[in-house]
Structures are given as structure tokens and as C-alpha cells.
Amino acid sequence: xxxxxxxxxxxxxxxxxxxxxxxxxxxxxRLITTVAGNVPGDTTADNARRVLxxxxxxxxxxxxxxxxxxxxxxxxxxxxxxxGLGGTLLPEGRAPLAGGHAVxxxxxxxxxxxAEDAPVELCVTGPMTNVALVxxxxxxxxxxxxxxxxxxxxxxxxxxxTPTAEFNILADPHAAQIVLHSGAPIVLAPxxxxxxxxxxxxxxxxLRGRAGRVTAVAAELIAFYDRNDPARYGxxxxxxxxxxxxxxxxxxxxxxxxxxxVEIELNPGLSYGQTVGDFWRTTDRPVNAxxxxxxxxxxxxxxLWERLARF
Length: 311
Ligand code: BDR
Ligand code: CA
Known about the structure:
- The chain has helices at residues 12-22, 41-55, 102-115, 129-137, 167-170, 173-180, 191-194, 201-208, 215-227, 230-233, 243-250, 297-308; strands at 2-8, 27-34, 62-64, 120-124, 145-151, 186-189, 198-199, 238-239, 255-264, 275-278, 289-295.
- By secondary structure, the chain is α/β, with parallel strands linked by helices.
């Protein structure tokens, strides 16, 4: 199975992404690192441990990482509740946090990948602070990365946290810009595609009806997450942003993509944190990202629910 590292800020949709990865035999989840995002850093780390206990996978180490962005204001998520997991739906994590900072743990994992000549896939479902620090401290570590698959950005539609910016990028735009300029192959799942992964009530009902010990609580989490959204987005159902990252690893054929140069607007103002994609090659700036654009939603939910039912 393929070695995978996951940097996340759980977050309901991060939690579902973690469960999808852990349920999938194609992937060898070696390391989970957490970053402040949806909720503060101590809470995202605590939540990742809870998800591992739910999954019965306390063997996977969780290292806590950065608690604030490199620069600029702190933003928090809106849709996962104050606890980040819709209240106290998940039991306490049984395994302790692993010692050592996430940036050091990611560095060690990439050094190992280089030494073994087995580059890893790095999944990022939160602000990119940890990953940016790893690559800023030692840019040569990019050799240990087969590709970065990240949830972030908003292109053809407006943002979900400001009129122009998507949350993960907004929460640390400088970090995102560092990562986009790192030379690592990057696949971005912006809200343009992740809003197609809508967990409608019918789909959640389907999940509830399935076997397995995590389906009921996963359905609870997703239903909580959904409560916040319909009025706001004119669509019924919570968008499962972060699981798109893992689904892309498992079934890339579910997605259509476009290549582009992507830069982040770092100037303060209305467009702070906006992802600027040059899809029509209006500049000479090199392509640095594959941007996921379209999703086969039926295929996505077949995959996701089938995997969640495996626990
Ligand atoms: C992203 O922001 C967070 O709220 C979600 O977990 C997801 O990673 C969506 O904009
Ligand atoms: Ca997230």
C-alpha cells in the first residue's frame, strides 16, 4: 500500500477524510499531524486522537503542530462547532499525543522517504502552516514528496469564508504561497469541486442504513455539519470538502482536473487569501497545480459510504 501522511485540522469533514483513509487498504497512513484551523491547535490534535480511537487505529501517531498562521489574522471554521466535531459525539482519544512537533515529525517522515527512495503522498486538509515550515526549513525535503494533495482554494465561485477566499487558504495564505512555490507536484481540491460532494439527507440516510460500527456516528457528525449550511449555500447537505482529497488518491477517475498557475493574493484587502488561477495561460507563470474541477458525486459517495461501512 502507498505511504501517506495527513496534515489536518479536524473538523467534521477532516474526521470523515481520516476515516476514509484509515478504512482504505490501498493507503498506509504513516503519520497524522494537526494544525490550528477549524478550531484551535490543541483541539484539532485532541480531535485527531478521538478519530483514531473511533477507528481502532491508535497505532498511527498524531503530532500536534502550529497553533497560529505564519502571518496575518487568525480565522476559525464555522461549520464544525466549538468542539470541531459537532459537540461530544466522539469518545476521548485513548492514545496519547506523540512527542515532538508536527514540523519535526513531517521532516523525519520525508527524510525517511528520501532515504528509502519511496516518496510519499502528503494530504493536507487544513491551513498549510506546518507544511510551509517544513519546506521553508529544508526545501530539499520536496524530494520526499510524490505529490501534495490539498483541499483549498476557490476559483470560479466566490469564497466560503470571505467573498473571495476559501477557509484553508485564508487561514494562512503565506503558507499556501510557500507550498505552491516549493516545486512539489500539487493537486488542489478547491470548493469549486468540493461543493459537488454534498451529503444530502438522502445520502446520509443511505449511510445510516449501512452496517459497521462507525456509520451511525459518522452520519451524526455529517448531519451536524449540514445543519449549518443549507440556508447559506442554497443547497441541502453539508459539503464533504476534505474527503475529496482522499477520494482523489483512491479513485482519481472520479475527478476532472485543469492545470494552472496558482498564486495567492497576499495583499491586505478584499481579496486577501484569494487563489488566483491562470487557467487560460494569460501569463508566462509556470503551471504549479492541478486543480480538481468536476466530481462524479454518485461515485464519490458509493466509495465513501462503502469504506466507512468497513469498520
Ligand atoms: C475547509 O475549511 C474547513 O472548514 C474544512 O475542514 C475544509 O478543510 C473548507 O473550506
Ligand atoms: Ca479541514
